[in-house]
Every structure is written in structure tokens, then in C-alpha cells.
Amino acid sequence: MxxxxxxxxxLAGMGFNGALYLxxxxxxxxxxxxxxxxxxxxxxxALTLLGILSLVLKSILQLSWWSGIILLVYVGILTxxxxxxxxxxxxxxxxxxxxxxxxxxxxLWAIACISLVFAMRRRPVDS
Length: 127
Hints:
This protein is mainly α. The chain has six helices and no strands.
């Protein structure tokens, strides 16, 4: 596996994730269950596997460890918010305006994408 292939897979997964968010906002009568099922049960596990793979192949491919960490933190935060929706930190989501949960997802997605682009451009200094 090459660095370019791994980075392309990561960016493709994040792009597909962003496309699902965009389609949710652009559709007139969104099927929340359909979109969230794909995001949480297909896209997030794929991004998690890519994050773990990039951490495992860090020394072999001379990768920065930030790519894997960013993916795992992004998926972890959103998954924990969903799991703890009834508890204190996730309970904040109930007090958001309509589409607030989706906006939280999009904001974290944008932060993760920008961070990934910067991380992919850097070469590791600890090699």
C-alpha cells in the first residue's frame, strides 16, 4: 500500500461522508434513518478502519500519526455523542435548534477535513 493510496481512501471516505451530510440538507423530506444508518454503520466503521490502518502503517509508509488520530477522534466524538444522547454531554444535543445535530456533524466534519489535509501534507519529524 502506498501513501497516496491510503490518503486517497481517507479523503474519499470523508468526501462520501460530506456528500451524505449535504444530501441530507438538500433533500426536501429527508429520511433521517436512512442517512444516519449509512453514516454510522458503513462510513464511520470504514473511517475507523482507515484510521487504525494509518496508525499501523505509520512507520512502514513514513506517515504522520496525525491522520489516524484525527480520524479516530472525529468518529469517536460523534459516536460518543450519539451513545450518550440521554446523558449530560449528549443531552446538549436535545437543546439545539432544528437541524442542530446535523450542524454539529458538519462543523466537526469540516474541522476534521481541514486537519487531515494539513496532516497529509506534512512529513513526519519523529521518523
